[in-house]
Amino acid sequence: MTKAVLSLSQVNFRWPGRAGFSLSVPDLIVAEGESVMLLGESGSGKSTLLSLICGTLLPDSGSITLDGTDISALSGGARDRFRAEQTGVIFQQFNLLPFATVSDNIMLPLQFAPQRRKRTHDATREAENLCRALGLPDGTTRAKASALSVGQQQRVAVARALIGHPPLIIADEPTSALDATSQAAFLDLLFGQIGAHKTSLLMVSHDPRLGDRFDRVIRLEDIAEIKRDGQ
Amino acid sequence: MILHLAIASLFARALTVGMTILAIALSVALFLGVEKVRTGAKDSFADTISGTDLIVGARSGSVQLLLYSVFRIGNATNNVTWESYQDIAARSEVDWIVPIALGDSHRQFRVMGTTRGFFEHYKYRQGRSLAVVDGVIMDDLFDTVIGADVAQSLGYKIGDPIVVAHGLASFTEHKDQPFRVSGILEKTGTPVDRTVIVSLEAIEAIHVDWRSGAKIPGQSTPQDVIREMDLTPKAVTAALVGVKSPLQTFSLQRAINEYPQEPLLAVLPGVALQELWSIVGLAETALLAVSGMVVVTALIGMMATIFSSLNERRREMAIYRAMGARPARIIAMLVFEAMLMAAVGALLGVMLVYAVLVIAQPVVDRAFGLWLPIEAPMMRELWVILGVIAAGAIVSLVPALRAYRMSVADGMMVKT
Ligand SMILES: Nc1ncnc2c1ncn2[C@@H]1O[C@H](COP(=O)(O)OP(=O)(O)O)[C@@H](O)[C@H]1O
Ligand SMILES: [Mg+2]
Questions:
Q1: Which of A11, A12, A21 to mutate for ligand 1's pocket (most ligand atoms within 8 Å of CB)?
Q2: Does the beta carbon of A43 lie inside 6 Å of ligand 1?
Q3: How many CB atoms lie within 10 A of CB A141?
Q4: For B63-114, what is each residue's pLDDT tens digit?
Q5: Does A42 contact ligand 1 (Cβ within 6 A)?
Q6: What spacing in Å lies between the alpha carbon of A19 and ligand 1's midpoint?
């Protein structure tokens, strides 16, 4: 049996406030090198779960273990740094700092992750290589992020998630801003990169059609109990 | 590297950031400019009279004596009799003495009767002497030397006639005895610029046909008769005195103040000037306080622009957070941006002051006789820059703390 990169057990979280949305995840494991798609409707709590995994939200109870470390046991600052070291994050859109160059954007997580930076010998070179591997034209790294198309920006976001090879990539509906052909191309490139480095991928989507490329497709309703106070 | 991202972020908002920096620069320039004018005015005020050890007049307040004898503002309540004047002149401590007779005017300018000694002993701006730019110092009874402002505003040239009016702002003129402009003085920035100077005897001469402030009806002594008369004055308004040794100043002052035959007052010009400045200077301090408030206003403007930028920058902060930045990093980033804006603004402000100073210095000197020295940036400027940067940092803490709270709540998800 392969090692688990991520495991959640008996996690409970409730948003404060009257709308009181709560989420319980009894058991979820992502193995090393595994790609998992998490399906769920809009508003079902997918992004909330990802924030818990990244440690920007803390569970009310239960444990979230990332690469062998229980993140709820870490202090706030250590958790932020741990996130920088262990995960690459891709959002739905608006991933990049528009005023910065592509290479500055790609190298941004290295600012907060000394070990990941040490692993990356020549960060500028690495950024260029990633851009080339992701099918971005030469010289893109020197361009301003705001000058790129949405599809190109998403690929830069992938490069940023991959730089320094963190064990886990977390993607929150990264293809929803792209059209069908770009979606396919995007996933080809993403899978090409994570396959090469045995990186795990946890990708959230509400579109089941993309599921066949993943090792495993799970539905949030199946692994979690979702409650809304209003209901 | 995070620094250069902060700078890139500022450049991306170049217009608002530029406006903010401009406001800070202008306010700093205004503050330093006011400060420069203030110190310049204080120095040139203190430079109005130098080289004179004592000013002597009838007993009144020291500020009043200074005002009418040097600044020609207000009037003497009493005169000093010619006998007392001569008593003082004869004292062993006295190196030189120059009489001043005031009371008449020409148009809006005061007429002052004095001796040639005035041109020799009256000094301003650390020992500079009066100099004629045109003509000569009067040598005829009816000659006059006029100050630069008098010549300029009345358009007088050498040889022009001048009719002196009796008293101040009066329509009764000494028409029978017109004067002739013999010399025009260089601009000094002192009240001399606004003075018509005649000889002491001339003051006597134009009053020959007058008794206790009124013209004797029908009497008009011809000029050649007047020239033959004894024109020794009966009194003078004040006198400037130089002592032989500075050590004797106080004993002479005491002697004059205790002069038994007549109540007199002797003041040290420096002391009286300081006393007067403590009154006049208040306005300048108020001006400085106001310009300080302008700097504060500019900084609050910066705070407002940071505040209003927070919403549109929420995503930027969420990206930083997702990449592993601590929320404290968000505070540091905003405070750094504010300090950078304040620093650039303050530096530009200092440069602006010097640029304006280089252009305005000769103009201000010519127009107001106010000399604004251009010195290398001093501790004061450095403190102002540091103060503005520190104040900018403090002020930016308010929006930075709000951004901190926002980014803790947002995490890496921004709802839009
Ligand atoms: N910042 C927040 N404060 C309070 N409640 C929130 C917040 N963010 C999300 N929620 C609640 O969590 C629910 C799930 O949101 P989210 O995790 O964004 O869903 P998804 O990503 O699946 O669309 C929302 O319906 C809302 O009620
Ligand atoms: Mg979501």
A1: A21
A2: yes
A3: 23
A4: 999 999 998 888 888 999 999 999 999 999 999 999 999 988 888 899 999 9
A5: yes
A6: 10
Is A95–B412 a contact, with Cβ atoms under 8 angstroms apart? no
Report CA-CA distances (Å) from A144 to A156, B1, B9, B133: 11, 16, 12, 67
Stretch (H or E) spanning B301: helix B269-310
Which pairs count as long-range contacts for A102-105, CB under 8 Å and 24+ apart, including other chains?
A: A102/A127, A102/A131, A102/A136, A102/A140, A102/A141, A102/A142, A102/A143, A102/A144, A102/A145, A102/A148, A102/A156, A103/A127, A103/A128, A103/A141, A103/A142, A104/B1, A104/B4, A104/B5, A104/B8, A105/A145, A105/A156, A105/A160
What pLDDT band is residue B416 in, cutting at 50, 70 and 90?
A: low
**Ligand 1: nearest atom to the Cα of A220:** 22
SS percent in chain B: helix, strand, coil, step 5: 55, 15, 30
Range of the domain at A197: 4-228
Neighbour count for residue B271 (Cβ, 10 Å): 11
The rounded distance, in Å, linking the Cα atoms of B337 and B393 is 9
Give the residues across from A69 on adjacent strands.
A66
- Residue of A42, A54, A92 best to disrupt the B interface, most CBs of B under 10 A: A54
Question: Is residue A231 within 6 Å of ligand 1 at its C-beta?
Answer: no
- Nearest ligand 1 atom to alpha carbon B410: 1
Q: How many CB pairs lie under 8 A apart between chains A and B?
A: 71
Residue A88 sits in a domain of what CATH number?
3.40.50.300
**Residue B165 per-residue DSSP state:** B
Separation of alpha carbons B166 and B172, rounded Å:
6
Question: Residue B138's Cα: distance from chain center in Å?
Answer: 30
CB-CB under 8 Å, A56 with B322 = yes
Residue nearest atom 25 in ligand 1 by C-alpha distance:
A43
Which residue is it, tokens 């500075």?
B246
Residue A42: alpha-carbon gap to chain centroid: 18
pLDDT in tens, A86-131: 999 998 877 899 999 999 999 999 999 999 999 888 999 999 999 9
Ligand 1 atom index nearest CA of B411: 1
**For residues B114 and B263, is the Cβ–Cβ distance under 8 A?**
no
Give the closest ligand to the alpha carbon of residue A41.
Answer: 1
Q: What angle do CA B15, B17, B22 make, to 5 degrees?
A: 95
Q: What's the structural domain count of chain A?
A: 1
Please report residues of A whose CB lies closer than 8 A to that of B323. Answer: 84, 89, 108-109, 111-112, 160
Determine contact, residues B296/B377, Cβ cutoff 8 Å: no
3-class DSSP state of A53: helix
Contacts of A56 in chain B (CB under 8 A): 321-322, 411-413
